[in-house]
Amino acid sequence: MAPTVAVVGGGISGLAACYYLARGPHPPKVLLLEAGARLGGWLQSTRAADGAVFEHGPRGIRPGGAAGADTLHMVSELGLADAVLPVPGDHPASRNRFLYVAGALHKLPSGLGALLRTVPPFSRALLWSGLRDLLAPAGTEPDESIHAFALRRFGREVADIAVDSVCRGVFAGDCRALSVRSCFPLLFRAERRRRSVLLGLGLALGSGERRGGGGGGGPAHARSRVGAEPPGAGRALEPVVAAGRDGDAARGAGGVPAGARSGAAVPSAPAQPPPPPRWPLGALAEALPAEAAVLAQELRRIPAVSVAVVNLQYEGAALPVTGFGHLVPSLEDGALLGIVYDSVAFPQHNGAAAASLRLTVMLGGAWFEQSFGDPAAAAPELLLHRAQAAVREQLGLEPAPTRSIVRVHQACIPQYTLGHWQRTEHIGRFLAEHRLPLSLIGASYSGVSVNDCIASAKVAVERLLGPQR
Ligand SMILES: Cc1cc2nc3c(=O)[nH]c(=O)nc-3n(C[C@H](O)[C@H](O)[C@H](O)COP(=O)(O)OP(=O)(O)OC[C@H]3O[C@@H](n4cnc5c(N)ncnc54)[C@H](O)[C@@H]3O)c2cc1C
Ligand SMILES: C=Cc1c2[nH]c(c1C)Cc1[nH]c(c(CCC(=O)O)c1C)Cc1[nH]c(c(C)c1CCC(=O)O)Cc1[nH]c(c(C)c1C=C)C2
Fold first, then answer.
1. What is the percent of the chain where pLDDT is above 90?
2. Does the C-beta of 35 come closer than 6 Å to ligand 1?
3. Ligand 2, closest atom to CA 449?
4. What ipTM did this prediction achieve?
5. Looking at residue 243, what is its pLDDT?
6. Considering the entire predicted model, what is its pTM?
7. How far apart (Å, rounded) are the C-alpha atoms in residues 426 and 206?
8. What separation in angstroms does the CA of 63 have from each of 16, 85, 222, 452?
């Protein structure tokens, strides 16, 4: 008799696990258990009546590397290749990212020329920071905060402005609390192996070394991205769900149980769907038996931050710059993480009013509670007001938006804080020693990107069933 595998959680990790479980030659019976009224987890989109699409969660993935290739392969096997919107590496949305510092937008330097010149907001050429990295001794601590690491290797401006902002634009997190070893393992290893981050990265990328989990591979990773055709990333899951059902049925392997489909399994873009249960790790820790108290304790030590996502649409407005968006370093404004210029990367999502401008303002993260209080009680009007004020001040757009959507995602981005590597090792050891029939997948362990989540599902299924085709 085919074994049964229960997949708990129908976010991208759980859905990818179902896909990998279902595609082998002898698929097990798969039960997908989702507590919410829809599938997709943080992948959420709204399609307005005029066709405009608003992403409330991820909006792009990096197609490069092994994890990117696996994602694209899954997308293609599910018949979704036509739904992919490529953003080439030379597109302004891939090339241009900005920082908002001291009242002005500054393009993040890229290319050798920019490294040789003094480019604001930096007070001297970044070449000096590079030289510092080549000369500084390697660290010896088993882990270090990202800020301390960047300060040691590249100096204060790079740490306080560039690195601080990137951590906000990937983890919505504070680089003073996040672990370099777990968030940027490639940078950590580069320093340990070659004594210099730049040298180590250059040699590793030259030899085609894989980026191992964590956000943002470093300065040299492929810049192209892909997004989803209308109806958007969240609603593009419809065929994923359907393929899971059909595939299972065709193989006579059980399929998703009717209870787990819960009527609204196919997202239907309600105005404000009920929020998913807070912090899946907390739910798991509570569900574990007393014998696994050690495991529950480690899981509770992996925190997550909340982000308010404010989608805005303007008619007849023009941006002062063209690019992916801008980030705001925490020294400038803790509450305001950054603004994505959605219309630049994905004009296909503008809907009928092709000249409309869509922006997403991201607020809170590690600064949520101190800026807005309890995320469960944060007033949407306050968040909208804060977002509009930022667009006015930072992008000079005076008119009121014609459309706005405010979502507060509670505990949506796990934080790999100092010592995260020990927690995940401890968890892995506990599962192995006790031979628990449990695999942990998803954003809480070894990478928060959609690609990382899908890769974690693949690895877990291969461990369980052996390599799948
Ligand atoms: C605002 C935002 C922007 C992002 N942008 C990007 C981006 O541009 N590119 C990128 O690669 N990544 C991005 N990410 C990260 C990425 O979207 C997430 O890390 C990823 O979607 C997490 O997927 P998951 O399946 O692990 O978890 P989740 O999406 O949290 O899914 C978990 C699922 O489990 C369910 N659940 C919870 N508790 C229970 C329970 N007790 N029983 C049953 N089910 C339960 C939940 O309802 C949910 O459906 C972004 C994230 C956010 C929040
Ligand atoms: C302003 C806040 C945020 C923005 N995006 C996210 C937050 C919290 C979430 C997020 N963004 C990315 C990832 C995946 C990481 C990965 O490893 O692929 C997540 C979880 C992608 C990303 N976005 C930015 C960078 C540097 C990266 C890393 C990889 C890549 O180059 O694609 C920068 C960035 N994010 C936001 C803005 C406005 C911005 C830069 C201008 C929004």
1. 68
2. yes
3. 14
4. 0.98
5. 41
6. 0.90
7. 33
8. 16, 11, 8, 12
Tell me the pLDDT of the chain averaged across its residues: 86
Q: Please identify which residue in the block is written with the tokens 């759980």.
A: 14
Whole-angstrom distance, CA of residue 84 vs CA of residue 88: 12
Model confidence over 239-270: pLDDT tens digits? 444 444 433 322 222 222 222 222 222 233 34
- Ligand 2, atom 28, lies closest to the CA of 216
433: its two tokens: 């020693």
Ligand 1 in contact with 42 (CB < 6 A)? yes
Determine the 3-state secondary structure of 426 from DSSP. Answer: helix
Domains in the chain (CATH in brackets) are 1-88+227-277+439-469 (3.40.50.720), 90-107+304-414 (3.90.660.20), 122-223 (1.10.3110.10)
- Ligand 1 atom closest to 38 (CA): 49
Rounded to an integer, what distance in angstroms lies between the CA atom of residue 166 and that of residue 199? Answer: 21
Angle at 402 between CA 356 and CA 367, to 5 degrees: 95
| Phi and psi, residue 391, nearest 5° | -65, -40
Query: Comparing C-alpha atoms, which of 443, 369, 377, 427 is closest to residue 174?
Result: 369
| Ligand 2 neighbour 449 (Cβ under 6 A) | yes
Q: Is 409 in the pocket of ligand 2 (CB under 6 A)?
A: no
Average pLDDT over residues 423-437: 94
- Cis peptide, bond prior to residue 414, ω within 30 of zero: no
Q: pLDDT for 82-122, tens place per residue?
A: 999 999 999 999 999 999 999 999 999 877 777 778 888 98
Ligand 2 pocket test, pick from 110, 170, 178 with the greatest ligand atom count within 8 Å of Cβ, gives: 170
- Give nearest CA residue, ligand 1 atom 15: 449
Using the predicted structure, report yes or no on whether residue 445 has a pLDDT greater than 50: yes
Per the listing, tokens 């607020």 go with: 363
